[in-house]
Predict the structure.
Amino acid sequence: MTAESITTTPKTDLKNLTLPDLEKFLQGQGKERFRALQVFKWLYQHDARTFDEMTNISKDLRRELSETALISNLEPEAVEQGSDGTRKYLFKLGDGNGVEAVLIPIEGRNTLCISSQAGCAMGCEFCLTGTYKLTRNLTTAEIVNQIMAVERDLITNPPALSVDPGQDGAESDDGDDDDGQAQSPAGIRNIVMMGMGEPLHNLDNVIPAIRIMIDGNGLQFSNRRVTVSTCGLVPEMARLGREIPNVNLAVSLNATTDELRDRIMPVNRRYPIRELLKACKEFPLPGRRKVTFEYVMLGGINDTLQDAKRLLRLISDIPNKVNLIPFNEHEGCEFKAPTRAAIDAFHKYLIDHNVTVITRDSRGGDISAACGQLKGKLEKA
Ligand code: SAH
Ligand code: SF4
């Protein structure tokens, strides 16, 4: 540590602050409250990277701000583009940790999968991120900066349109009706917190990040376009529902008996299936919105019709849709992908029983950007 860093108070990273937090921060410095809204808009609607860009704010105030605050940023260290249009972004954080975000174009609409932690403490047997243990939580700024960096990249490197116009009208992946509020075609439409880490294990930073995402003066995502995925931390599910009631919930169920779930997802020993489903039922979702149940199909482990039958029974009294994710194999993990026949039979069983099912193709497979393959170039301990 240098002498300088001991004597100066650390600057506040403004991207860690929701709009009300920013108001408090500026009021604490004797500034008028409306300044916060001006600064907030500069950050998220104009992507200002320096205080000097904030031209409707006096030079004096800009100088004062630059003495107490900073505007952090992420630049991708590497961007890989898959043959299917998927893009994987590797971000190197200030302390050398790496995290990844994945952009998945679906029928010309972009879904961005972002990370919430470097590594993950949950230790699911089938997940590569989980084998790296938890290094640390991402800050609110690091979470929103992933989105902002990808939005910038989409402006400078717009993806080639992956759909021929004749196919338009195909159903979107999320099955939602169109709310007519889509961002520009090149922009990000959906945010899913399904990258590295367990978002509900980092709620103190994830909740403000979501508030910035859905703030009409912030990143302006509709709450129906933001999804949080969890392995099933029951008390945190309740907290998320209390604090941000309208966000979409995805739950990685992955097994239909406690015996198997205990084995492949250690979190189940703390919060078994029955408690998890109760928390799903109690999660406040507006109108016709549904809980997404993710189900990673592990060949020969959880991929039979018996499993499909039990799955149906478990979720039938919760408004639901199911994402079937064929296991993505990775080195050092003994699980195998399911056969095509097993996937099709499982899928068909659910469809025949009126469940909305999406079987995820292995998007980003050729660039190791598919589910559970993100590792942020961390070295294995
Ligand atoms: N921690 C959160 C979100 C990140 S994991 C959660 O567990 O929900 C995102 C999804 O990837 C989860 O549904 C998880 O079950 C799935 N997944 C993990 N490893 C996988 C793999 N090797 N193949 C396919 N899906 C995997
Ligand atoms: Fe963590 Fe999710 Fe991977 Fe489990 S599946 S180890 S909770 S990232």
Q: What stands out?
A: Residues 120, 122-124, 127, 129-130, 197-198, 231, 252 surround iron/sulfur cluster (ligand 2) (CB under 6 Å). The chain has two domains: 11-70, 76-380.
